[in-house]
Amino acid sequence: MVEHRWQIIIGAGILILMLLTAAFSFGVYVGRYGWSVKGLARQPGFHAVPQPKPAGQNQAPPQGNQRPDLLGRIWTISEDALELLTQDGPRLIRVTSDTRVVDLSGTEISLSQLKRDDNIAVYGPRDITNDNVLLATRIVRLPLRTNPNQPQDKNQHPDILGKIRHIDEDTIRLATEDGPQFVEISPETRIEDLDGAKLLLPQLNIGDGIAVYGKLDAGGDHWLATSIVRLPPLNPSLR
Amino acid sequence: MNSRSQSPSALDYGIAALLTAVVFLVYHATLTPSLSYLSPDGNELATVPAVLGLAHSPGYPLYTWLGKLFSFLPFGDIAHRMNLMSAILGACSVGGLYLIGISLLHPDSGPSILRRTAAALAALLFAFSPTFWSQAVIAEVYSPNIFMIDVSLLLLLSWERSGRNLDFFLFSLAFGLSLDTHISNLGFAPAMALFIVLTDRSKLKQPAWWLAGLGGFALGALQFIWLPLRASTLNDRFMLARAPITLKGLYGYTLGAFPQFIFAFSIPELPDRLVLYFAYLVRELSLCGLIVGLLGLAVLLFRRSRHFYLLTGMYLVHIFFFIQYRVFDLEVFFLPAHFFWALFIAFGTAEALGGLSAAVRLLKRDRLTRVANLILCITTIALAIFPLLFHWKISDHSQDVAVNDFYANVWEMLPEGAVLLTSSGVFGYDAFYWQLAYDTRPDVLLPALTTPDPAGMDLAGRDIFTTTPVLNRPQRRGPGALPAGIIDADWWQIPILFGAQTEGGARARSHLILYALSAEPPELVITNAKPSIPLEADLNGLRILGADLSPITLESGARIHIVLYWQLYQPDLKRVITFIDDQPLEVHELGLGNLQRYHREIGLDSDQVIVEDYWLVIPSTITPGTHKLSIRSDKSQTEIDLGEITIVDQLEMMERWLNIAGR
Fold first, then answer.
1. Pairwise CB contact (< 8 Å): B275 & A4
2. What chain B residue is nearest to A178 in terms of C-alpha separation?
3. What is the model's pLDDT at position B451?
4. Mean pLDDT throughout B365-388?
5. Which of A48, B289, B561, B622 has the greatest number of beta carbons closer than 10 A?
C-alpha cells in the first residue's frame, strides 16, 4: 500500500509536469503568434484539415492569411488571363477589372507592366469548375534582383523558385513548379533577403518562398545552392 | 485500487466483434478500390507483398508476409486486397481498443453497462478520427501498426493476469514483430519494462521468464533477416544507397534510416511542436476529447497506477520522439499517440458516466437507475455519429479509380515491344504494379523497374512512351525522377491519352497523361478540316470548326478518341477543358503542349487548322446511360457540345482491370 501511494505521488508529479509543459508551450506559442493558427502553418508537417469543397460555391479567399494562394512564374500573358508556372504545374489566372495588380510596396501597376518570367504572388478563389484556374483578386509582383555571384550575361532569374516544405541542417525540400526539389546547403551557400541582408538557415521557415541560385549535382537528384534569396512576407495591407 | 486488469467477458468479446464489424463496414464502404496517390508510397506497399519483395526502409517484412496472405483472397485485384488488409486490421484495432479499455476500466468507476459504453465510445471516436480512417482505406502500414500495438498490449495484460511464461513469450513475440510495422515501437520498451517490474519484480530472478521474453522478442525481430535476402529486388536509388546487405547497411536501412528526420528541432522550437501535436489531437478527437482524456489520465492514475505508467509512458515517449520528427506527413506518425488518448478518453468517460449514474442512484429507485443508465448508454454511443458524419466525405475514396483506369488504357494502347518511361523507385509503382503483380504486357519494357538509372539502356528500335514529362520543360527532379539525358532533348513529347484528375496526390502526380516520344513533330496542323461533327463556334479568339468522336458507345473505364479542329485568332495560349455532363475530366493546353514549339520551329499561319488528336479515359465511376460530352475554353464560358456518348457497363471495373492486367 505504501508502494502504491508512492506510485500515485510520482504519477501525480508526472501529470502536473505534463500540464505545466503544455501550458508553457501554449504560453510560448501565444507569445510568438498570438491567438492564431499562424504558427501552426509554419510548422513542418502541418497540414490543414482537408475540407470537402462546398457544392456550387466558389471558395472564398482565406481572410487574414499573408500567404498567397499561388506563387509562380509568368509564362504567358493576355488581357484577361495569365498562365503561371507553379509548384503544382501550370495554372491559369483569370484577371478581371476588379483584379488589383500591385508591386511589393503596394503601388498599383497595370497588368501590362507584368511580363513573362516575372515572379508573382496571386490571391483569389479557385474557379468552381476547375482547380487549375484561379480567379485573381490581387496580384503582387515580386522583384527579383540579379544574383551578384552570377556573371552578368546569365539569366537574372533564379534556378528554382518555390515554397519551403522541409528544412534539415543541410537540405531544403521545396515545392516548385516541377514538383518536389531538394536543395543542398553548404557552408559556402549565402542566404539573404531581398535587401542583401545575410540570413542564417534557421531563419528560413516552412512556407517561406525562396529563390535558389545554383547548379544541379552530377546525378541530377538535387541542387547545390550557391545562394538563396528569401522572398519577403507580403504586407497584409496588400490583401 | 491498483488491482490487475480484468479478463474481458464473452459479452465483451461479442461487443468487440460487433464494433469491428460495424467499423469494417464503414471502412469497406469508403475503401479505395485499387491503386491511388493518397499515400506517397502506397502503391509500392500494394505491390511488394504480392511479389515478396522488399519495401522502402525499414523493409516491412511482417507487412509483406501478411500482405502475401491477403493477396490470396479470391476477390478484387491485389491492390484492392492490400487496401482491404488495412481496413480489416484497422477495424480489428478498434475492437482491440475496446478490449484494452474494458480490461482496464475499474469496476469502481461505474456499472458495467456504462464502462462498456465508455470503452465503445472511445473505440468509435478513434475509428472515425480522420487520419486513422484515411489510413484504413489504403495500402499503408499505419493501420497494421495500430493493430500490432493492440495485440502487444492485450498480450501484456494477459500475462499480467496469468503470470505464465507462455503468455510473456507471446507478448514478447508480438512486440518484436511490431517493430516491422513501425520501428519507433521500440520506444515503448521502457514503459513496458517499468510496468513488468511494477507488476511482478520476482520474475526478474527467473531464468525461464527471461528466456521466454528474450526468445520471443528475438524471434519477432528475426524477421529482419528478410532484408538482406530480398535486397536484390530494390530499385529505388535512395534505398540502394544503403542496401541492407552488410551489417552497416542493415542498420542504415532500419534503426538508422532517415537520420535527417530525427530530433530535427532545437529546444526553442519544441513548444511550437507540442502545440502542433495538440492541434492534431483536437482535430482527430475534438476539444471535448482532449478535456475528457485529461480527466481520464487522472482517473487512470488513481484507479490503476501501474497501468498509468504503462500507457502514459508509451504515450509520452511517442510524443517526445515525434514532435521532433521532421516529415511532411507528420499526422500519421501521431496515430499511436491518438490511440492512447482514446484509451484515456475511455477512462474519463467511464468516470463521468459513473458519476452521473451514482447521482441517479441517490434517489434509491432501482428502475429509474436502470433506465437512466440505458439512456446514458444510448446517448453516449450516439456521440460517435458526429465524427462518422463529419469525416465521411473527406474519408470516402471509393470513387478514386483514376490511376487504374488510366493504366488499364495505357496497357491497351501501347504497341508491341514499346518502352514506357515512368518515375523511378517508390514513385514508379503505379506502373510497376501491373508487371510485377500480374506480368501485364511483358513485351513492354519499363526501364525504371529494374534500375533507377536506366540511361544506359538500349532503347533503339522501340516506340517510346512516358507517363512522366521528360521533355519540353525543365526536367522534373527529386525522388522518382529519371536521370537527365535519357531521351534526346530535340524529341517531341506528344500527349496521346489523358486520364481523369486523381484525388490527393501526395506528390505532383495528379496529372495522368501518356506521352508518345518522337523525333518527328506531331501532325498538329492541317489545311483543310473535314470534321464529322461540324461545330463552327467562337470561343473568344478561338474558333472550333468541328470534332470527331469515336466510339460513341463505350464501356465505362474505357477511352474515347477525340479529334478537335481549331482556328486560333489570338496568339495567346488557351486551355481546353473537357466535360462529361458537368464533371470536368481533363484540362489541356491548346495544341497539347506543343503549339509554341511548333510555331517556333515549323511555323503556323492563322488560317491553318490546329488539330488536337487524343484519347480520353472515361472514369469507371460514370454510370451507364447517355451522357453529354462538351468542351470549354478557359477564355470563354461558352460550352460547346460535342455530342452524346453512351456508357455501358458490361464489365465491372475490377473485372475490366483484371482482364487488362492479364490475369
1. no
2. B476
3. 81
4. 93
5. B289
DSSP string, B523-569: --EES----SEEEEEE-SSEEEEEEEEE-SEEETTSEEEEEEEEEES
pLDDT at B479: 53
DSSP state of B477: -
- The arithmetic mean of pLDDT across residues A211-228, rounded, is 75
What mean pLDDT is reported for chain B? 91
Q: What are phi and psi of B430, to 5 degrees?
A: -65, -30
**Nearest by Cα to B503 from B577, B399, B622:** B399
Under an 8 A CB cutoff, do B331 and A94 touch?
no
ipTM exceeding 0.90? Answer: no
- Asked whether the beta carbons of residue A89 and residue B511 sit closer than 8 angstroms, the reply is yes
- Look up cell 511580363; give the residue: A115
pLDDT confidence of residue A148: 45
pLDDT digits (tens, 9 = 90+) for B90-123: 999 999 999 999 999 999 999 999 999 999 999 9
- Look at residue A57 in the predicted model and tell me its pLDDT: 30
Which pLDDT score is estimated for B148? Answer: 98
Q: Which of A174, A168, A188 is nearest to A223 (CA)?
A: A174
Q: Is there a contact between A231 and A194 (Cβ–Cβ < 8 Å)?
A: yes
**Cross-chain residue pair B275–A18, CB shorter than 8 Å:** no
What is d(CA B40, CA B423) in angstroms, rounded to the nearest whole number?
Answer: 12
Q: What is the pLDDT of residues B11-40, one digit of tens each?
A: 999 999 999 999 999 999 999 999 998 888
Residue contact B481–A221, C-beta within 8 A: yes
* Amino acid at position A128, single letter: I
Q: Do A77 and B572 lie within an 8 Å CB cutoff?
A: yes
CA distance B456 to B458: 6
pLDDT at residue number A127? 59
The 10 Å Cβ neighbour count of residue B99 is 22
Chain-centroid distance, C-alpha B546: 42
Q: With CA atoms as reference, report the closest residue to B121 among B450, B402, B350.
A: B350
Contact present, B322 and B264 (Cβ < 8 Å): no
Buried b (16+ CB within 10 A) or exposed e, A42-51: bbbbbeeeee
User: What is the four-CA torsion angle of B474, B475, B476, B480, rounded to 10 degrees?
Assistant: -170
Query: Cβ of A89 under 8 Å from any chain B Cβ?
Result: yes
Which residues of B139-186 form beta strands (DSSP E)? none
End-to-end alpha carbon distance in chain A: 65
What is the arrangement of strands in the sheet containing B553-555, beginning at the earlier edge strand?
Answer: B553-555, B639-648, B625-633, B575-580, B583-589
Q: Please name the helix (run of DSSP H) or strand (run of DSSP E) that holds residue A224, with its range, or none.
A: strand A223-230
**Residue type at B642?**
L
Task: Provide the chain B residues 287-346 that lie in CB contact (below 8 A) with chain A.
Answer: 294, 297-298, 301-302, 305-306, 308-309, 312, 316, 325-331
How many residues are there in chain A?
Answer: 239
Please tell me the distance in Å from B610's CA to the nearest CA on chain A: 19
Could you give the CA distance from residue B115 to residue B346 in angstroms, rounded to a whole number? 8
Placement of cell 502542433 in the chain: B276
Tell me, what's the pLDDT at B335?
A: 97
Question: Contact, A168 vs A194, CB < 8 A?
Answer: no
Closest of B182, B217, B233 to residue B49, by C-alpha = B233
> Any chain B CB within 8 A of the CB of A39?
yes
Confidence band, pLDDT 50/70/90 cuts, at residue B293: very high
> Closest partner residue to B573 among A18, A76, A88, by Cβ?
A76
B301–A216 CB contact, under 8 Å: no
| Phi, psi at B661, each rounded to 5° | -60, -25
Q: What is the pLDDT of residues A75-108, one digit of tens each?
A: 778 877 888 877 666 678 888 777 888 876 667 8
Residue A17's closest chain B neighbor by CA? B316
